[in-house]
Amino acid sequence: MPAWGSVLSEISAKQQSGQQAVDVVRRKYLKRLHQHTERNVIAYYSGWLFRPPSTPNLSVGDDDMNAFMAAVHQLKREKGLDLILHTPGGDIAATEALVTYLWKMFDKNIRVIVPQLSMSAGTMIACAAKSIILGKQSSLGPIDPQIGGVPAQGVLDEFQMAVESIKRDPASTPLWQQIVSRYHPSFLNECAQAINWSRTMVHGWLVENMFNSDPAHVATAQKIVDFLGDHSATAAHARHIPLSKCEEIGLKIEKLEDDKKLQDLVLTVHHAYMHTFSMSPASKIVENHNGVATVHMASMPQIFHAPHNQMPMQAFDPRVLPPVQPVDSLKPPAEAEAAPAEKAESD
C-alpha cells in the first residue's frame, strides 16, 4: 500500500484528471480496510494538528452524535465495528453518550484503532472497546479531566499544598490567599466530581467489555485507571503514552505490526485523512466505509451531511488556509477501481 508520498501523488494525479481527489482516495482505502477485516469501519478524525485551537468542532462534543448516527445507519451491525480514532479529546458527557450509543448499536463488539493519537476523551473511548490496535507510532493519553484548560487534580493538589504550607508556616497565608482566590466558589467540588466521574466511567467500561471474561477484571481495570487518571503519574495532560506503556499497565493491545496487510491499510487511510486536512477546509470528519460522511468545515460553522448526493465545498477562507482548488468531500465513492501495483510501506 502507498506511503505518505505515494498517497499524495495519487491524489495529485486524480486532481489533474478532474476527479474529487482526496475523497476518492480516502474512501477507496476505507473500503479496502473493510474488505480486509470484514468488519464495519468508521473513521473519527479531527484536524486539530492542522487548525488553530480556536477552530470550532475539533474536539469530541454533542454534535458528534448526529454524525455517528448517520455513519451507523444501514450498517450490518452484527459484523461489529472497527473505530479509527484521531482526536485530542473533548467533553466527558458527550464521550459517555457516544460510548453508550455505540455499545447499543454493536452489542459492545467494538475494536478501536489508533494510527497516531487518541488523547484524553479519545483514550476513554478506546478503553470502552474490546481491544485497542496500536502501532509503534501510536499513543494514547491521560484521562484526568481538565476544567477550563486547568487539570482538576492539579487544582486539588495545589489546594492541599496550600493547607499544609499554612499549617507549617502561618506567615505564608497571604501568598496562598492570592493563589487560591483565583478559584470560584464550588470549583474544588467540581474538580473532585469530574475526577470521580471520569475514573468511575472508564473503570466500568473496562470491567464490562475489555475484561468482562477476566476473573480479576475489577483489579485489572483499577490498575489502568489509577495510571491513566493520575495527574502526578502522567505529569501532563498532553503526555503521549506509547504501546509499550499501554501493555505494561494492562490494556488489551493488538500490535498493528503483527498484521502487515492491516498495518498498510490503516496507515494509508491515516495518510489520506492527513492529506485531506492539509488540502481542504475540513476540520473534522466522521465517515464509514460506504462513503457516508459528516464533515465540519474550518471556514464555516455548519455541518454538511450528504451521503448520497453531491454537495460541493465552499471556496476556502484565506484566513484559514491559502487558496487551493476546492474539493467535494461529500460525493459518494466512485465505482471500485482496479488496485494498481503499489509498494508496501515499511514501518
Structural account:
By secondary structure, the protein is an alpha/beta fold. It contains twelve helices and 13 strands. It has an eight-stranded mixed β-sheet, with helices on both faces. Strand 7 and strand 8 form a beta hairpin. It is globular. Residues 301-347 have low confidence and may be disordered.
Radius of gyration: 22 Å
Poorly predicted runs of 5 or more residues: 301-347
First and last CA, distance: 12 Å
Question: Overall pLDDT, averaged?
Answer: 84
Strand order of the largest sheet: 10-5-3-2-1-11-12-13
Mind telling me the CATH class of the largest domain? Alpha Beta
Helical proportion? 40-55%
Categorize the overall geometry. globular
Strand content range: 5-15%
CATH topology label of the largest domain: 2-enoyl-CoA Hydratase, Chain A, domain 1
Number of helical segments?
12
- Helix- and strand-based class? alpha/beta
Oligomer category: single chain
The number of distinct structural domains comes to 2
Order of helices and strands: HHEHEHEEHEEEEHHHHHEHEHEEE
Query: Biggest sheet, in brief?
Result: 8 strands, mixed
CATH architecture of the largest domain: Alpha-Beta Complex
Tell me how many strands there are. 13
Question: Which key features would you list for this structure?
Answer:
three-stranded mixed sheet, globular, alpha/beta, 13 strands, 2-enoyl-CoA Hydratase, Chain A, domain 1, disordered C terminus, 347 residues, eight-stranded mixed sheet, 2 domains
Quick description:
The protein is 44% helix and 14% strand.
Chain-wise SSE layout:
Elements: H1 4-16, H2 21-37, E1 40-46, H3 64-72, E2 81-86, H4 92-106, E3 110-114, E4 117-118, H5 121-127, E5 131-134, E6 139-140, E7 146-147, E8 150-151, H6 152-168, H7 173-180, H8 187-210, H9 217-228, H10 231-234, E9 241-242, H11 243-249, E10 253-255, H12 260-279, E11 282-288, E12 293-297, E13 303-305
Parallel strand pairs: 1-2, 2-3, 3-5, 4-6, 5-10
Antiparallel strand pairs: 1-11, 6-9, 7-8, 11-12, 12-13
Helix pairs in contact: 1-2, 2-12, 3-4, 4-5, 6-8, 8-9
